[in-house]
Structures are given as structure tokens and as C-alpha cells.
């Protein structure tokens, strides 16, 4: 025994550390799915197909047509803090990919049966590999000799399939907490829908395993309004107005542009006008530097703007994509990357609200003109 008598503190086993870390990132199947979608988008995919069984607890199967993974990278694929996207801390200031922590696949491999089929454009064959606890494993997900865990060549298309089976099989407390597979499926669909709206040029499809019916399906060529129509419905799509602000704009009495003053490079998106008759709350779709985030201060501020325009109890649909100078944005606040922090938050929120107020009132007054004329 290395420690002296009475010592109580000891380092945890690495496998325990990894399982704890996994629990922070992957709380429910939708978290795993989000990470896998982001990886597919990072890999420049234009089509992403998803199959789900039992709300993702039995199976999450993602097929993309992206750049694939080189055979020689497969042994590190699920190693924690192994990534192709970041090499030094400073790179975080200008990170353009979703991923950078190299933790997602590692985490998932610690709490599920994870396998991969992947092919790069230059490789004549695809390779299939199995993982357990961050490492290559045999086809029955057991640790094995180098030879028995080596990726197997198989026929396949360019791109990557990630197959996640039996999520949380070794975390019984977590597994017990899931009440409804339908709820988990709904959360998965919600994440896919949000990315389908935001990621122009990428098509998404989702179905339940064993069923032919597509629950959601978008093509890469659809424009923003068409994507919103597919995901959020015709009633929303028919009442949309564009919100566009580029950073060269400035306040009436200001000298500097929004970009120079607050680091606000651009805002684009679409929101429903005051005609949209809807009582159901729709969580706003916010992306900041292409990350799906929840930004409660912005959400609250926009709600109060809408109070001027909507009858009591009516709810808007809001999709906004913000681009902020990367040096003003901290994406590394939380492992799930769901929250971000940025400088000049209050000012930026005010600018956006003023813009939304303006587009909503322009529409309202043009309507009154028509009515009078
Ligand atoms: P991160 O995305 O933070 O780098 P991940 O654990 O999500 O970490 O992925 C590890 C690495 O695996 C990525 O850096 C990338 O090189 C590779 N990878 C994961 N998914 C895909 C995919 N769908 N297509 C191509 N490469 C992928
Ligand atoms: Mg990733």
C-alpha cells in the first residue's frame, strides 16, 4: 500500500472516470444523437439517415455520406480526448467544427455497444469495427488481442455508419429513469428537426427501425422556408418573415458598426408574424455560430416583444442563427455545449429585439395600409 496509514483519498480507476464523464455528456438518447449528427455534418455530409428503435435505447443507427474515417484512425476513434479537429487550446477561439473535445464517441462507447462501418473516397473497401470502453473490441464487444479486434474489410458506400446499441446497458439506474420510449423518440425528432432547419445543404431522414414510413424527411436542396414547412408545418411556414441583420449596420447615433462595437457579425433567420394563430408553445430554434443552443435571456426578451403583436396566449415560432466573433464566444462552458457565453450579451439581445420589433411592425402597418386603401 503506497499511501500512509489513515489515508482515505485514492485515484479512481480510469474506467470509473470514463463512465462518470460519459454520464455528464450523454444523459438521454437525444444527447448521443446530437453528437452523432454533428459529427456527420462536420464530415461534410449532404445526407444523413437515422433509424431509431425503442426511443434510441435499443438502437441509434446513423448513416452519412461524408468523408469517412481512415482505417488507420479507427483504433483512436473512441479514445477519450482524441480528435481530428483541435490541436492546441488557442484553436478553440476559431473553431469552425461542432466537435473539438473528442469525447462523444468515447463516452458512447463506455455506455453502449458501438460499432462503425466507414469508407473514405480513396479506399476501395469499407471497414467495420467494434468498440467497448474506448477501445477496439471483438465482434461480440469483448476486449481481445490486436488481431481479433482489427477492423474488418467489407463492401460499403463512401461515408460512415455509426451503430449504437443498448445505450445505458451498464448504467441500470439511468435506464430505470426512462419512463417512455415515445418521449425519448420525440426528443430525438426534435433535435433532428432543429438541425434540419438550420443545416442548409444537408438532407435528413428519420424512421423507426423496421418501419418504412419516414417520420421526417428533408432534401438537401430545400430552402429555409421549405425546411421549416417540413419540420414545423404549413401553418408556420405560411406566416414567416425573414430577419436579417448584417454586422455593418449600426444604431442611428453610433459611429461603429455592430461588428466593431459588439462583435455581432450577422443574424439571419425567420419568425412568424402577428397573423400566426397558435396556442402551443414552440421552443425557439437558436443557433450561435452554428451550434444549437438554448439562450434563455434572448428567449425571454423576444417573448416580451411578441406581447405587443400577438393576442394573449398566442405563441410565435422563432428561428435565429447568430454569428458572433469567435473570440467573443466561449463554447467550452459545458460538455454538452448546449450553453455558450458571449460578450456584450445584453447589447446584442437589444439589437436583435429591436430588429424583430421593426420587421413585425412593418408588416403590421403595411397590412393596415391595405385595409384602408
Ligand atoms: P470530436 O467530434 O470532438 O472530434 P468525437 O468523439 O465526436 O470527437 O469524434 C472523434 C473523431 O472521429 C472526430 O474528430 C472525427 O475525426 C471522427 N469522426 C466521428 N464521426 C465521424 C463521421 N460521421 N464521419 C467522419 N469522421 C468522424
Ligand atoms: Mg463530435
From TrEMBL:
<dbReference type="GO" id="GO:0005524">
    <property type="term" value="F:ATP binding"/>
</dbReference>
<protein>
    <submittedName>
        <fullName>DNA mismatch repair protein MutL</fullName>
    </submittedName>
</protein>
<dbReference type="GO" id="GO:0097587">
    <property type="term" value="C:MutLgamma complex"/>
</dbReference>
<dbReference type="GO" id="GO:0140664">
    <property type="term" value="F:ATP-dependent DNA damage sensor activity"/>
</dbReference>
<feature type="domain" description="DNA mismatch repair protein S5">
    <location>
        <begin position="228"/>
        <end position="361"/>
    </location>
</feature>
<comment type="similarity">
    <text>Belongs to the DNA mismatch repair MutL/HexB family.</text>
</comment>
<keyword id="KW-0227">DNA damage</keyword>
<keyword id="KW-0234">DNA repair</keyword>
<dbReference type="GO" id="GO:0032390">
    <property type="term" value="C:MutLbeta complex"/>
</dbReference>
<dbReference type="GO" id="GO:0000710">
    <property type="term" value="P:meiotic mismatch repair"/>
</dbReference>
<dbReference type="GO" id="GO:0030983">
    <property type="term" value="F:mismatched DNA binding"/>
</dbReference>
<dbReference type="GO" id="GO:0000713">
    <property type="term" value="P:meiotic heteroduplex formation"/>
</dbReference>
<dbReference type="GO" id="GO:0032389">
    <property type="term" value="C:MutLalpha complex"/>
</dbReference>
<dbReference type="GO" id="GO:0016887">
    <property type="term" value="F:ATP hydrolysis activity"/>
</dbReference>
<keyword id="KW-0539">Nucleus</keyword>
<dbReference type="GO" id="GO:0007131">
    <property type="term" value="P:reciprocal meiotic recombination"/>
</dbReference>
Amino acid at each position: 500500500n503506497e499511501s500512509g496509514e489513515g489515508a482515505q483519498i485514492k485515484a479512481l480507476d480510469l474506467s470509473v472516470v470514463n463512465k462518470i464523464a460519459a454520464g455528464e455528456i450523454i444523459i438521454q438518447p437525444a444527447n448521443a444523437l446530437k453528437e452523432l449528427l454533428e459529427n456527420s455534418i462536420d464530415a461534410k455530409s449532404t445526407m444523413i439517415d437515422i433509424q431509431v428503435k425503442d426511443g434510441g435505447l435499443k438502437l441509434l443507427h446513423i448513416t452519412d455520406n461524408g468523408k469517412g474515417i481512415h482505417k488507420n484512425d479507427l483504433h483512436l476513434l473512441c479514445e477519450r480526448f482524441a480528435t481530428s479537429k483541435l490541436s492546441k487550446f488557442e484553436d478553440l477561439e476559431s473553431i469552425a467544427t461542432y466537435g473539438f473535445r473528442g469525447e462523444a464517441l468515447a463516452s458512447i462507447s463506455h455506455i453502449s455497444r458501438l460499432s462503425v462501418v466507414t469508407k473514405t473516397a480513396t479506399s476501395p473497401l469499407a471497414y467495420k469495427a467494434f468498440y467497448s470502453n474506448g477501445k477496439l473490441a471483438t465482434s461480440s464487444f469483448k476486449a481481445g488481442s490486436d488481431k481479433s479486434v482489427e477492423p474488418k474489410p467489407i463492401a460499403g458506400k463512401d461515408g460512415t455508419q455509426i451503430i449504437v446499441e443498448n445505450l445505458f446497458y451498464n448504467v441500470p439506474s439511468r435506464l430505470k429513469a426512462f419512463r417512455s420510449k415515445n418521449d425519448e423518440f420525440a426528443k430525438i425528432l426534435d433535435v433532428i428537426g432543429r438541425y434540419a432547419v438550420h443545416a442548409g445543404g444537408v438532407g435528413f431522414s428519420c424512421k423507426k427501425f423496421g418501419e418504412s414510413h419516414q417520420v421526417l424527411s428533408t432534401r438537401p436542396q430545400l430552402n429555409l422556408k421549405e425546411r421549416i414547412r417540413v419540420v414545423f408545418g404549413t401553418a408556420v411556414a405560411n406566416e414567416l418573415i425573414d430577419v436579417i441583420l448584417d454586422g455593418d449596420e449600426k444604431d442611428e447615433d453610433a459611429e461603429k458598426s455592430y461588428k466593431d462595437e459588439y462583435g455581432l457579425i450577422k443574424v439571419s433567420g425567420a419568425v412568424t408574424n402577428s397573423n400566426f394563430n397558435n396556442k402551443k408553445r414552440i421552443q425557439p430554434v437558436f443557433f450561435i455560430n452554428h451550434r444549437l443552443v438554448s439562450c434563455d435571456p434572448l428567449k425571454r426578451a423576444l417573448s416580451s416583444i411578441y406581447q405587443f403583436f400577438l393576442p394573449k396566449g398566442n405563441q410565435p415560432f422563432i428561428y435565429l442563427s447568430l454569428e458572433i466573433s469567435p473570440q467573443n464566444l466561449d463554447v467550452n462552458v459545458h460538455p454538452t455545449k448546449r450553453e455558450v457565453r458571449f460578450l456584450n450579451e445584453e447589447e446584442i439581445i437589444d439589437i436583435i429585439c429591436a430588429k424583430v420589433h421593426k420587421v413585425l411592425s412593418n408588416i403590421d402597418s403595411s397590412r393596415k395600409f391595405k385595409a384602408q386603401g
